[in-house]
């Protein structure tokens, strides 16, 4: 949130996660444009794990903050340790992003709280965006009214990246984060690490952190230790 003096939560969007660092292929361009469009309405992002849905939710929060709007990022996996009352009054915020909504499935208190939150947002000017692993219909919610409400929202599926997209995404991450790594080392990572963009990003950031702290170059022997 960009108004922490008014409401304080134990979660917030990471400020470094922005749309510029999310590689957008043609299949995902419409989704990204609609996330930025304040008039596009409430949205559900459906995607497999580790494909960037958390990045997108935090990016749209940071986008709203940049244009002077309030936002709230809620990672449900962490929020489940708290009482659903943490959602009280957040419908006054311009944008609410709730990550991994499927994790509340079969938790009756949280399902009811999210159902009530959707109703409150629809009666106010708040916009709400969810992400789900897989699809809403297979999440396994107990509350039929919640599933009905969610199915009325605009749904987008995040398209998987093919090999060429992954290579382009890696180049984008390296460029935007000024990571000093050679082509030979990049090719080694791509050929030996799991071709999962979240995993590859983690490797690159870990290598960069090590390189900066030790003032040593990123080498293949170091990469072997990391991956």
TrEMBL record:
InterPro entries named in the record: DnaA_dom, Hda_lid, P-loop_NTPase
Name of the featured protein: DNA replication initiation factor
Organism: SAR86 cluster bacterium SAR86B
Keyword Glycosyltransferase: no
Keywords assigned: Initiation factor, Protein biosynthesis
Residues of the Chromosomal replication initiator protein DnaA ATPAse domain: 36-132
An annotated Gene Ontology molecular function: translation initiation factor activity
Record domain Hda lid: where: 176-226
Pfam family, one: Bac_DnaA
GO BP term (any one): DNA replication initiation
Highest taxon of source: Bacteria
Stored SUPFAM superfamilies: P-loop containing nucleoside triphosphate hydrolases
């Amino acid at each position: 949130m960009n108004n922490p003096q008014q409401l304080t939560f134990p979660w917030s969007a990471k400020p470094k996660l922005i749309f510029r660092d999310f590689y957008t292929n043609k299949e995902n361009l419409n989704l990204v444009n609609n996330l930025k469009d304040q008039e596009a309405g409430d949205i559900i992002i459906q995607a497999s794990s580790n494909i960037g849905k958390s990045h997108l939710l935090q990016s749209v929060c940071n986008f709203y903050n940049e244009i002077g709007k309030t936002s709230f990022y809620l990672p449900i996996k962490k929020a489940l340790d708290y009482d659903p009352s943490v959602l009280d009054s957040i419908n006054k915020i311009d944008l609410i992003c709730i990550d991994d909504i499927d994790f509340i499935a079969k938790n009756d208190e949280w399902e009811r709280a999210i159902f009530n939150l959707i109703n409150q947002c629809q009666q106010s000017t708040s916009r709400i965006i969810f992400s789900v692993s897989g699809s809403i219909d297979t999440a396994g919610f107990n509350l039929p009214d919640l599933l009905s409400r969610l199915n009325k929202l605009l749904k987008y599926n995040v398209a998987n990246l093919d090999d060429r997209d992954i290579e382009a995404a890696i180049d984008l991450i390296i460029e935007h984060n000024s990571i000093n790594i050679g082509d030979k080392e990049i090719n080694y990572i791509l050929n030996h690490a799991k071709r999962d963009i979240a995993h590859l990003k983690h490797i690159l950031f870990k290598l960069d952190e090590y390189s900066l702290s030790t003032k040593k170059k990123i080498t293949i022997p170091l990469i072997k230790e990391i991956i």
